[in-house]
């Protein structure tokens, strides 16, 4: 399959596909981060995670229209406002959901899965009712349009670079929050030994609620970033949910670094394959490889031997 | 019940390894570098009641986990009637004749006492066997026999969920008895029991010792004195002392661990 | 030592583990009468065919009761097995419909039309076995069950279960859908395999054929219920329940837990495959839209609504949900997804044992009271074994 290309061409293809893979990687990481927090730390499967992401995307869309009509002068920075609002909206919805639904089901993980699937259906239909079935896109501010010419054959789009910058920022932020802050310490304490954490004065229910909210909020930011590179429809979230779950599981559930490494390998494999094969074959091969590896090594890529 | 092993003496070191029912040698397991069990060796004779004691975290439960295959050993060997156990699956270990009772009563809440015992009946253990299993007179008689021994013959039709804590412990012991194992491992069988229940349990253990060996983890020293033929003391994953209860009690190292701080 | 015990056990030698309890026979009779008499007598040909289609999903729900309710293994990929069974059937029917005579306008006559459109000039190897009806009938069961065996064996011997297993099965459903859609030339792509006409020369599109197929479907369904009932009543059924709650205890009672899980998963796959094949026969096509994530998880809700531990409940649940779906999407299409979503949540939060649970805690006590009042000297009503 490499026959028709010269070596220089191949280099450029790999570089550009690699960059396309990096953008996919960014979206995957942002989605998977939220999921890794919820699934990895709480053991809860949130099937509505994609819909929380789409909520962020719709919030961003609303923001962009609002700025366009009411504050055109500030349009250049609307995205930052949108991102914060997306985080707050998804996070708040997440906390409500945790309080009304998830907390009753902590001992029944499979049932959580079904209930959150129900939630995702309701959210999808709500989006359809409110925003219509058609996909919506946001207007990019002028400074995000265009691309940077790296060499004669390689050019990279600015919005892609921007998404990657945001991803890096959020990832570092989440990492600091989980491993360096008091809140992160409490979260990990609750997950490791709930009764003990309760006994030393940690409000475990509150920690659960905030953890879930945090995971959903990050999904909201993912949705916000998602609008930079694609359009948003009521069911867009569902397209990513399986990939995201696989990433989290493949990375070894509880480890943030593992999640990032696994998102990287999956997105790079997929986007490189995509150039040479049809999109669907690339996706099938990637997913098959992941499922195959998980069957042989179910604990994921990055886990330690732990005492059962 | 089991005529295969009857003759060997209860106490006294036998020089020949194949006379032991269970020989654990240089057993070691580490979790992320932490050696929960470190170079542990001990030997159990046929028809012996051996009690393992030791402070919390000494590695007692881990030793049982290793013998029954729940945890895989990092090094060392476990021989049961000359067969190496560290290499075979949990179900094969059970079928070789090792029964294990867990610390918290582990029974099937949704099933009746009868059904709990029936599942443990050592027949029809394959998928096909379980599909074609017949509840015949042999099964019924054996279940009633065991239920009588474990003081539950009037509760056979009750859901296990509704038994008292002590009755649940007995039921699990019964589930092991019905397998007729040559080595029975019990993890704190009298924990949480009332005084009356303890006495009955000691009686039960002395009854079921016929034809088998029992390996018990227990904290209740009174109970240990009542039942133990020999005692092994574990401390920080190592064997600290071994011998009769009398000897172990007077061992300065043991006194140091239990009393001197 | 056994003498007092023997006398005791004699009093218990009455069959305390019958194949079905009286109430269960009644349930079976009610269900059979409803499916095989009431519905055919009251519905027109179109509606009856629609119910026939719903009932093919009931096979999947039945499998889920065994696999999820009993063994505790939630598969979110049952559409895979439904689809594989359905595709096997469809491939045979398609080949029969693509005789050289019927396809003489194609550039390569004698192969299915979609292959011709995709420039395939020879029947692919994987289609060859489906030229034979007996082989097809075997493959309808063998392919999905083998597939389930491979997945189950790989996962369960490595102690993967619970949510991990659910996610993996879901991913497999996604992969298979993408694969079928992507490989148009071999699978018919997104449209699926359509324009099916005859089964071994018998035209399946006529009203009378559909009528007969409906009864075949109903009969097979009741056959599967009886088979599942047999498994449930055998010691194996109790082992599945025991395993679900105390896996380690079962393992340390000398059972190889993985083997039993694989069996439950394969059984569910087999049921789903029969459903899929009957779907193809009655509806006249098979497409990837019955394979993927969404249909797979919807099939779980049928079992959940009926009651995850009740075989009859699974069938009633399937009928009810699908009836609601048809009614709502005809008159209030907007509301249906809200309703379905709410159903998922309500069943999990408020009625974890579904219709069967409601029946058992509210209806049955009253019924038995009435029965007792009618027959005061009758035998005591046996109290139900738990978790049926």
Automatic annotation (TrEMBL), chain B:
Keywords: ATP-binding, Hydrolase, Nucleotide-binding, Plasmid, Transport. Transmembrane segments: none annotated. It is an enzyme of class 3 (hydrolase). It holds the Pfam family ABC_tran. Its EC number is 3.6.3.-. GO terms for cellular component: plasma membrane. GO terms for molecular function: ATP binding; ATP hydrolysis activity. Residues 22-261 form the ABC transporter domain. PANTHER family: CONSERVED COMPONENT OF ABC TRANSPORTER FOR NATURAL AMINO ACIDS-RELATED, HIGH-AFFINITY BRANCHED-CHAIN AMINO ACID TRANSPORT ATP-BINDING PROTEIN. This is Lipopolysaccharide export system ATP-binding protein LptB.
